[in-house]
Design goal:
Elements lengths: L7 E5 L6 H13 L5 E5 H8 L7 H20 L3 E5 L5 H10 L3 E7 L2 H10 L10 H6 L21 E4 L5 H15 L5
Parallel strand pairs: 1-3, 1-4, 2-3, 4-5
Helix pairs in contact: 1-7, 2-3, 3-4
């Protein structure tokens, strides 16, 4: 008997691009087809792995390694996973692609200015730190992706969406359609 592994969708983009909101909406879309998925956010992992984060290169490598390992273990046990994480370095996402057989990357492209405006107004941080862009602009945080450290855009994501031009609901529906197609799932 051949056991099918769980699938994994990594939603990546700058902080404020809509990852957490869209991950939750994608989870609901999948649930409508009786496809259950566990959302894993890097902020959730960080809360336990590094409760007082420094966001250093070494620490990020450790946290993203734990994120990928967790997603890999879940998918190996037939749990579908949605990763909600900036993953500012391509190597983090590449690590997941190499470790998880049923993997796809969804890139939320969004101008930095829009992300900054959204973060300013955001009420639900989904465990993410608050006021990151404000702190970065004041010189109080030097590790914010897009300002203090680079965000390396995906080179070949399975889907790329400009989340500044579409509602979160439409972005989630587009990713949902891409998931169905990429993993050959029937609605």
């Amino acid at each position: 008997m051949k056991v099918k592994k769980g699938l994994c969708v990594w939603i990546t983009g700058l902080p404020g691009s809509g990852k957490s909101t869209i991950a939750n909406l994608l989870q609901e879309e999948l649930k409508s087809l009786n496809i259950h998925a566990q959302i894993i956010s890097v902020d959730m992992i960080r809360q336990y792995a590094t409760p007082q984060p420094t966001y250093s290169k070494k620490e990020r490598a450790t946290v993203y390694g734990a994120l990928v390992f967790t997603a890999k273990m879940l998918t190996e046990n037939n749990v579908n996973v949605i990763i909600d994480a900036t993953g500012n370095r391509r190597q983090f996402r590449k690590q997941a692609r190499q470790a998880i057989p049923h993997f796809m990357e969804a890139y939320l492209k969004c101008p930095l200015e829009v992300c900054m405006q959204r973060e300013e107004k955001r009420k639900n941080t989904h465990l993410a730190p608050t006021d990151i862009y404000e702190k970065a602009m004041e010189g109080k945080a030097s590790t914010v992706p897009g300002i203090g450290v680079p965000y390396e855009e995906p080179l070949n994501p399975e889907i790329k969406i400009d989340s500044s031009k579409l509602s979160a609901e439409k972005c989630a529906k587009k990713i949902f359609a891409a998931v169905l197609k990429h993993f050959n799932l029937k609605p």
